[in-house]
UniProtKB/TrEMBL annotation:
InterPro entries: Flag_FlgI. Its main location: other. The basal body constitutes a major portion of the flagellar organelle and consists of four rings (L,P,S, and M) mounted on a central rod. It holds the Pfam family FlgI. NCBIfam families: PRK05303.1. This is Flagellar P-ring protein. It comes from the Bacteria. The keyword Signal applies. Assembles around the rod to form the L-ring and probably protects the motor/basal body from shearing forces during rotation. PANTHER family: FLAGELLAR P-RING PERIPLASMIC PROTEIN FLGI, FLAGELLAR P-RING PROTEIN. Residues 1-22 form the signal peptide. Belongs to the FlgI family. Keywords: Bacterial flagellum, Cell projection, Cilium, Flagellum, Periplasm, Signal.
Amino acid sequence: MRWAAAALAIAIGLASAFQAAAASRIKDIASLQSARQNQLIGYGLVIGLQGSGDSLRGSPFTEQSLRAMLENLGIATEGESARVNNVAAVIVTADLPPFASVGSRIDVSVSSLGDATSLRGGILVMTPLSAADGDIYAVSQGSVVVSGFTAEGDAQTLTSGVTTTGRVPGGAIIEREIPMRFSETGHLTFQLRNPDFSTAVSVADAINRHTGKRYGRMLASANDSTTVSVSRPKNVALPRFVAEIERLMVETDAPARVVVNERTGTIVMGHDVRISKVAVSHGTLTIRVNESPVISQPLPFSDGVTAVEPLTDITAMTEGGQVAIINGPNLQTLVAGLNSIGVRPDGIIAILQGIKSAGALQAELVLQ
């Protein structure tokens, strides 16, 4: 229980430290609305697998794709039955970064589409990648890097990670640029990654202080909790102006929030989380059932039969149950109050949910 309390204190302490030093560059909390990524997708084949590819009977589309590829290469396969297990059909995805130029390379992700067991050691064959408009913007090809592995024997199989997905670093070459006239833009729109009215106003104020001193005009205004509009000054190169704005420091703000992941037992609290004075009692009831059947043998030379008599032992144990007074005017006091109960992270999660239901948690509770 002590390690659980210590882990909670470390996680909350880190969150407190980061919240206390909340001054950030604008480039770290916002992005240009016109400079956005675009998602690409394609369908292809991975070859060269060591018997871990798709079974052509279970994945008929793999055989169709293999025949189509061979016919495009001038190899006739009509009337032939393909019996290969070193080919896998995959979906290839990538993100096309903004201002990407023709000839530059991007990473791609490869995911198995059929019943292949592993993509380790495979090579992705030339695969065109298209966007939502249907046009091809990149072509990918290369060796697939898989982080997981599988070891199999006659009676046991060991698997670590995922072996049916992988990456091809720098595996796609951009063949077409997305039309964009960035240098001719008259107005810029910065979009906050974490929408907040206070942060949006702070960003606008920081930009206006800078432009007021340098250009003699206030050029920024907060539209809402997400976007901040900035007018472009005359006779100034737009890339240089954007670079000046991105380096400005801003005090960010965010609502009080507690994030709880019930699967992993992770708890993260923001610096502004408060708990009103409340009494908490937490106890765990454990019931253990142990079956120990007794075999009864008949006497010698008798007509009796062997019988099994059930024997059940039930034990109930209660852990915890102490009552603690929790009052969190600051984060340190809150952590000390939760640690004083001495429960595991799953117990603290249940306590936080109960405090929220009682109306004593002055923060948003996010369950993942």
